[in-house]
TrEMBL record:
This is ABC transporter ATP-binding protein. Keywords: ATP-binding, Nucleotide-binding, Transport. One of its GO terms (molecular function) is ATP binding. The keyword ATP-binding applies. Belongs to the ABC transporter superfamily. GO terms for biological process: peptide transport; transmembrane transport.
Length: 254
């Protein structure tokens, strides 16, 4: 069974069709990048994988299966298990996902507790363990820091730690390096690569930057106006893009 199976997905916001009949699969443990210019529908797809359009007024058609869960049919309980425990998401701006007033370790522990019902003590230990795993130095002490005490790169690491805490089968990373400077970008991409090798989790990387995709994934799916314009092994697509649009994206890489 594929880890992700999307068939003929269409998402409409009022009269705007943001995703238009998109189909793709992602195998267990594989890494796929969704690339395309801003507004091409990438984040809308990422949200659909976790059922985040539910109850928002967006119109969703087609089928989306993630780690054995049919997202459209899932009960609230099943959706809760899907989000976090089976699939976890990290976003471009870690500050928007973190509460400024609480220690980072407590926030990770809280997420872990919601999904596992672990004791407070066990959840705190888990938070320190995952912070250490993503390369936060002196993790036990730094887990008591609040988000503003971390650099941008460390905040993104902390968010990845939060996502990892429940050992998801799939990590969805939506522009995880866009807000970071180039050196830190490379460190975060390295981290994602290492974690994938260690855990065997699948990765769906959403990025407007073809260069980022080239360094991080096996396959690339190029999106334009909510549709797939091409898909294939990243090296092959980048070496010989069959679409003019893909060539334009490549030309935009510095
Ligand atoms: P990308 O991630 O590729 O930049 P998005 O998926 O965020 O693209 O957006 C695709 C299109 O859908 C854009 O035109 C965007 O303005 C629109 N859109 C996204 N989310 C919403 C929403 N919640 N309500 C209305 N329009 C939206
Ligand atoms: Mg986006």
């Amino acid at each position: 069974m594929s880890l992700v199976n999307v068939t003929d997905l269409t998402v409409e916001f009022g009269s705007l069709r943001a995703v238009d009949g998109l189909s793709f699969t992602l195998e267990q443990g594989a890494a796929l990048a969704l690339v395309g210019e801003s507004g091409s529908g990438k984040s809308t797809v990422a949200s659909a994988l976790l059922g985040l359009h539910r109850g928002t007024g967006a119109r969703v058609a087609g089928t989306v299966e993630v780690a054995g869960t049919d997202v459209a049919d899932a009960s609230d309980d099943e959706l809760r298990r899907l989000r976090g425990a089976k699939a976890a998401m990290v976003f471009q701006d870690p500050l928007s996902s973190l509460d400024p007033y609480y220690a980072i370790g407590d926030q990770i522990a809280e997420v872990y507790r919601v999904h596992t019902r672990a004791s407070r003590r066990a959840a705190r230990a888990r938070a320190v363990e995952v912070l250490d795993r993503v390369g936060i130095p002196d993790a036990a002490r730094r887990s008591r820091s609040r988000p503003h005490e971390f650099s941008g790169g460390m905040r993104q690491r902390a968010l990845i730690a939060m996502a990892l805490s429940c050992e998801p089968d799939l990590l969805i990373a939506d522009e995880p390096t866009t807000a970071l400077d180039v050196t830190v970008q490379a460190q975060i991409l390295d981290l994602l690569h290492t974690l994938r090798e260690e855990t065997g989790m699948g990765l769906l990387l959403v990025t407007h930057d073809v260069g980022v995709a080239a360094e991080s994934v096996d396959d690339v799916l190029v999106m334009r106006h909510g549709r797939a314009v091409e898909r294939g092994p990243v090296a092959a697509v980048l070496a010989a893009p069959s679409e003019a649009y893909t060539r334009e994206l490549l030309d935009a890489v510095p």
